[in-house]
């Protein structure tokens, strides 16, 4: 049963047979990158994070893999590193589980990164964002990202919100964005 935002994300990834290039915009402990490497036919996966601890944990989890590139920088600088079309962007916002809860994504750089992702998105590509409104910074980030996505041109983009309607305490939810085709 799909009972958590992470289950939704995995289902969306598993159903996509068009992933050649993927970017994990918030590598954290590397779980999402590993899932993409193991469950899609992606031949290149890039992962961004600003924390050295995330770099270490991700590389420890994934090991030596020629398909994988970790980039220790903000996802807001993605255009410095990637100039090809990308089939999957995945954002898992918030702070590093078991890490420093003060180092968290923030709405300003998240929105810059989402805008740049839209520019790099391949025609059938997807942007999947897991949002955590249950903590104060996450609440603001949730509001600001929703405001931004609500205003995307509906003739150009499809924006879907996947949320657990009857859960309490502002549970995490997923936004799915793609080109209208
Ligand atoms: C919820 S965790 C990601 C968990 C990860 N997807 C996993 O599978 O383990 C969020 C991560 O975003 C990172 N982060 C925060 N601001 C960032 C930024 N501007 N660019 C890239 N990563 C950032 C944090 O350091 C943290 O590791």
UniProtKB/TrEMBL annotation:
User: Is Transferase a UniProt keyword of this protein?
Assistant: yes
Query: Which Pfam families does this entry report, sorted A to Z?
Result: rRNA_methylase
Q: Which GO terms describe its biological process?
A: methylation
State the Gene Ontology terms under molecular function: methyltransferase activity
Which keywords accompany this UniProt record?
Answer: Methyltransferase, Transferase
What residue ranges are annotated as transmembrane?
A: none
Full protein name = 16S rRNA (Cytosine(1402)-N(4))-methyltransferase
Q: Which organism is it from?
A: Anaerococcus octavius
Q: What is the lineage of its organism?
A: Bacteria, Bacillati, Bacillota, Tissierellia, Tissierellales
Which gene specifies this protein's sequence?
Answer: mraW
């Amino acid at each position: 049963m799909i009972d958590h935002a992470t289950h939704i994300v995995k289902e969306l990834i598993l159903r996509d047979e068009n992933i050649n290039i993927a970017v994990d915009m918030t590598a954290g402990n590397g779980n999402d990158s590993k899932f993409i490497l193991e469950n899609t036919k992606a031949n290149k996966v890039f992962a961004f994070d600003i924390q050295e601890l995330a770099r270490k944990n991700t590389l420890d989890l994934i090991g030596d893999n020629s398909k994988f590139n970790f980039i220790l920088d903000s996802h807001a600088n993605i255009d410095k590193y990637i100039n090809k079309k990308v089939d999957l962007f995945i954002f898992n916002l918030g702070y590093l589980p078991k890490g420093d809860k003060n180092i968290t994504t923030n709405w300003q750089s998240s929105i810059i990164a989402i805008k740049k992702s839209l520019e790099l998105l391949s025609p059938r590509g997807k942007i999947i964002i897991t949002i955590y409104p249950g903590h104060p910074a996450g609440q603001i980030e949730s509001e600001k990202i929703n405001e931004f996505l609500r205003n995307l041109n509906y003739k150009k983009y499809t924006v879907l919100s996947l949320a657990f309607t009857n859960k309490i305490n502002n549970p995490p939810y997923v936004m799915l964005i793609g080109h209208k085709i």
